């Protein structure tokens, strides 16, 4: 009897909350969030008291989060089932917790007949594992000649993100968000200017990748860059900047030249920066609209950190799309693996990450032009191969890397060594002081309740398809995994490749359109 009582109490608690939400009108749902958030937090503490019921607790918690999120966003209960005719490959529940090998075998069976796409891709060829049909077509994404784009690149190479947005003909606001530990983050907002788009739910937050900045999203220019495509379709677009990059170097108290200033990794970017930015966006958008999140590389890592350490932030997301997420890094190659192996890393220092690798590392890993290989981000991403980035090549010399801490890179190197997605390893003594245990704890990915879409490439040196499959295997939420099959599609190609609009952004737009159509159908 005593073993059954905790479960009965939890179920009665949920029933009570659900009855309240159902009987309150939809019009008051925006004001309910402030009351529901402490309820969610209390629910977590209540459920955590009953360790023997862990599996049941996880099922109840995911259902609870999903119910509240759907009621707050649409005023209806969303069953979260894909249409019967959809080709989305949702990872089966039976495979999620059985390890990456079993999941990988399943995924290869489902996609083994996918055609390998040549480098000159035509508009009617799909490179992902899924084919979508929607009102958005390839005509939405305008092509431009390489000569014209290179000319624009040379003129724009010295501009800031805000300047570039204005030059490209869009309205921009620049906001400053201050984190709880004093870092001043710059956030660029592109205002939707397309007539007829007024939906308060269409808010998009984009977060850049490793050693990046908000300007990375803009270099392809109008009609091609993802933020502009989103703005053209009515989204209120926010571009985040992580602490320590060229747009977010200020601090309330710390001097940028001190070791204390640079004592952060992607953990703080996710746990502190991302939470502050989301809170700020919600406070500055009407009715605190739910957010469509899109993160590349480290931006995806940051969201995984936030949702696993502060799970109630799932309530604020309408969707989450992760491009080349960095989490499990078994398959990493290139300079980042060199760093992980600890071969004479004294050149790294303990403050801002280096602007260029030493000559011996460049010679070992450079596969393309020497000028590009002097850029540490490009060298780590694909060895300086420039085949797919001709239109932005001239801008990369001046606009990248955006900057970041050495600790951020070392934290990724740690994941290569450990094979785990875990917090920073300070060594046994300091780990005991910081975490209360000798080894750094792993991130609780099972706490993430938001459905995720992940997009990967087998050619990615940093976030291979196999490693993304491993991530999917550790998640208990719904995960849809798409793969870009074009040979040589690298980590930086997700944002800078000439064919990224066709191979990645068209898919993103279709996914968002599908979510929108589904929400509207539920409200009828």
Plain-language structure description:
This protein is of the alpha/beta class and 524 residues long. It folds into two domains: 5-74; 128-334 and 382-523, Rossmann fold, CATH 3.40.50.1820. It is built from 20 helices and eight strands. The protein has an eight-stranded mixed β-sheet, sandwiched between helices. It starts with a helix and ends with a helix. Mean pLDDT is 78; it is low at 1-8, 21-33, 43-56, 71-138 and 142-151.
Q: Secondary structure elements and their pairing?
A:
Layout: H1 5-23, H2 29-48, H3 54-74, H4 93-96, H5 100-111, H6 146-156, H7 161-167, E1 172-178, E2 184-190, E3 203-207, H8 226-232, E4 236-240, H9 266-283, E5 291-296, H10 298-309, E6 317-323, H11 335-340, H12 359-365, H13 370-373, H14 376-382, H15 393-399, H16 406-418, H17 428-434, E7 452-456, H18 465-474, E8 479-483, H19 493-496, H20 500-523
Parallel strand pairs: 3-4, 3-5, 5-6, 6-7, 7-8
Antiparallel strand pairs: 1-2, 2-4
Helix pairs in contact: 1-2, 1-3, 2-3, 5-18, 9-10
